[in-house]
Amino acid sequence: MSLPGISRLRQCSVKCLLLPLALLLLVAAIRTPLLGIPFERDEGEYAYIGWRLDYHELPYRDWIDQKPPAIFWVYWAALRLPLDPIHAVHLMGLLFSMGTALALFFLARHFTRPLWAALASALTALLSADPLAQGTAANTELFMLLPLVLSQWIFCYAISSGSGAVPMLLAGALTGLAVAFKQVAGLNVLLLLGLIFWVHRQKPWQGLRAAGWLLAGTCLVWGLVAACFLIHRALRDLVYNVFTHNLEYVGALSWAGRWQHAKDTLAVLARTEVMVWVFALIGLVQLFVNRRQAGDPSPQPSPLMKGRGRSLPPFVFATGWLLSSLLGVAASGYFFAHYFQQTIPPLCLAAALGAESVGNIRWWKPVPAWVRGSSLGLALAVLPVITLAPFAVSTPAQAAARIYPGEPFAHMPELGRRLAEVTAPAERVFVFGAEPELFFYARRVSASRYIFLFPLYGPYRDARQMQSAAAEEVERNRPATAVFMPNRLFLLPGSEQFFTRWAFSYLRSNFRADSLLTVDSNGAIQLLTAPEGQQPSLPKGQQMMASLLIRKREN
Predict the structure, then answer these.
(1) What span, in angstroms and rounded, lies between the C-alpha atoms of 184 and 178?
(2) In 505-539, which positions are buried (b, 16+ CB within 10 angstroms) versus exposed (e)?
């Protein structure tokens, strides 16, 4: 090899090392200021069940939840770190985000040059932390993305290299792991199967063999999960809560309601993502224009097209991944902002390819490449940076109040401390509400398996039966304290209200108020505690958000 050739190889090696390192530092810089934001209610349920795993208790059997089990194991691991729980959990989320950024960088290298691959990864790091999309929370979507993107990367390697069973088995196992964080990741199985049969459409038997290995990997992961719960006599509980009950949940909304939820959420996300959407559309259109007939080389300088294996057109892959992700977001019909985390990696990949195509426009070629690249990167990053900047200098409580307006998450640690003060460690607590983080902050056990009450309310056939069983369970466990904090979603038209009527009567007869969580006309929230033995009073001009109750003394 000539000396200039050796020099270019060294420069490429340095670049390929420095770019991933820069991406890791970027993720750390984005997420470190956000580590102390208090838990929201989903994080509270994961933290509570993660804590109770140390007591040989299981989700679904001992505590009702609808999420697959991997999230609880990750929280259990995070809570063992030598940090306060909030920082520990969010640090775990930071580490997963680093892995996702790296995985997307190497996946994007199948389709484009290192700098544009780095842009896709950097955009993913920014958008996945977007407070408007609740990206600051350590939610299931954040953890799901790492195995999901890794599965795509391994799959592309298997296709491009013509490798045999092992990469396909691994891609399937990673998809199975993603499903163990959130059910909708299962759409990735359908996507990869479709891509397999596209690639092997001339030789379907090869496609069947590859598909078999992919499915074997997915089944292997879920076989282990099923075996774990079967051993602990909780397999039926797992199947009902994670799958059966969720099918009813998915069918609960009307089409009009789904459309309204989608419009509301997209209006919020557009404030940060609109330029990414524009460039993603440009990228997909350009890929479509440049597509070639099956088996022809792609015009893209892509290692994916130059291996010993089959040809997988970039347009087919990028469009299929984005559409399957959008289907995952839409599955429930609620279109919560954090659901859109699933679309971020394919969206950012398409946007980076769009930026590359814009940078290659003929009339712009006289401009130095670094100026073109920097300008396009800035155009894509400016809105996410503007969104994130205020949160980087806010206190955790201020950030929580801005991310979740009208929600009391910033004050739940304080209420949790008061709950711990008025109860003994062995005493149980009943929360009529949807704030399981209270149990975790106080380190007190729930008087009911329903650590939040959403599963009791809704158009479920067995709602009355579940509510009656939950009421009996609370009475049997005789909680020493209670928190009255009803959620407006409990009172939707048509929902069963037996448990509501029972709770009002039970709390009124057996408890007295100890503390009040109030909000004034300016939205300021405070916890009011009366002197011992006295009832707290609600100040004029304030409304009650929650009431902490203690059991009345028996005569």
Answers:
(1) 9
(2) ebbeebbbbbbbbbbeeeeebebeeeeeeeebeee
Q: Could you tell me which residues come within 8 angstroms of residue 233 by beta carbon, excluding any fewer than 6 positions away?
A: 61
The predicted model scores a pTM of: 0.91
pLDDT (tens digit per residue) in 242-254? 998 877 777 667 8
Distance of CA 150 to the CA centre of its chain: 16
Tokens of 331: 């599955």
CA atoms of 235 and 225, how far apart (whole Å): 9
Q: What is the pLDDT of residues 21-58, one digit of tens each?
A: 999 999 999 999 999 999 999 999 999 999 999 999 99
Higher pLDDT, 202 or 411: 411
Measure the CA–CA gap between 48 and 28, rounded to whole angstroms. Answer: 26
Position 492, amino acid: L
- CB neighbourhood size of 492 (10 A): 11
Q: What is the DSSP letter of 241?
A: I
CA distance 31 to 27: 6
Nearest to 444, CA basis, from 420, 418, 471: 420
Q: Which residues of 86-111 are buried (b: 16+ CB within 10 A; e: fewer)?
A: bbbbbbbbbbbbbbbbbbbbbbbbbb
